[in-house]
Design goal:
Layout (H helix, E strand, L loop, with lengths): L1 E3 L13 H9 L4 E3 L30 H10 L12 H11 L22 E5 L8 H4 L7 E5 L6 H4 L11 H11 L2
Parallel strand pairs: 3-4
Antiparallel strand pairs: 1-2
Length: 181
Amino acid sequence: MQDKSFPNPGEVTQIPLLGTYLRLSAGSQKRVAPTDRTVLYTWRNYDDVRGVPFTAPNHEVADIRDVARQLATGGPTAYWETYFPSRVVIDIGAGFGGARSGEMVNLRYDNMSRTKPNFAAFAGDGSIGSTAGVLFPAPMLAQVNTLPGYNHIDTIGAAAIQNNGQPDYSGQYLAEFIKGL
């Protein structure tokens, strides 16, 4: 493995102000790439990364067997469905910008969702909370949680029990939110 620096090194995200926006293109962690394209690289499971380079147990949360099942099943539980995550951010921006045509035609009530209970979970190792979350903040009274060690889509695909022996934070926080309604 070798350090990966395209589109920018992960370390530049430490630059004040500018670094926050650079996370959108590459994340904040050091990234690596294969050095030999002819070798079959394997994937260690989230609970088998202690002592290996480039990661740590507190930054791995998804079980590879669950990820493989979710990627393979398609349908309504597909991991990479067309509406998550990029399309959500684009639609939020379009809605805030006043778009009301095509798929946005049923968006009728400005800020109505801000009058209802809201829940937001941001990946602690991801960039959405510090970038898109700043541009499109959760409602003032929303329950907002940051999930330590989670990255990007881990918020919906983390293993039920994490490396620290605790339950999946995203499921736990969501269940607590629903219980409080």
